[in-house]
Design goal:
The structure is a single chain. This protein is mainly alpha-helical. It has one domain. The chain is 68% helix and 0% strand. The protein is built from 3 helices and no strands. Helix 2 crosses helix 3. The longest helix has 29 residues. The chain is extended. The mean pLDDT is 94.
Length: 80
């Protein structure tokens, strides 16, 4: 969380560089490290049982990631 890029980030960037050779579509990066924390908090606030949280945490976190990315795209388009 100090701004440095670890091995996973570096391999993701390498994958994206290779992918740019196959498509003209823009490739964006999204830091999703805190999505699970946000999902856990939301599920706790909703008084979701521990068992149910473990069943849906990844789905809720994915929703946070997707919504954040869509919000960012919308923001960029409004400011073009």
């Amino acid at each position: 969380m100090d701004g440095s890029e670890g091995p996973r980030c570096q391999s993701t960037r390498a994958f994206a560089r290779n992918l740019t050779r196959l498509t003209d579509l823009p490739i964006g990066y999204w830091d999703e490290r805190l999505s699970t924390v946000a999902a856990e908090r939301a599920l706790l606030e909703a008084d979701t049982s521990r068992k149910r949280r473990s069943e849906v945490i990844d789905h809720v976190a994915a929703g946070y990631i997707l919504q954040g990315a869509l919000d960012r795209i919308g923001h960029l388009r409004r400011n073009e």
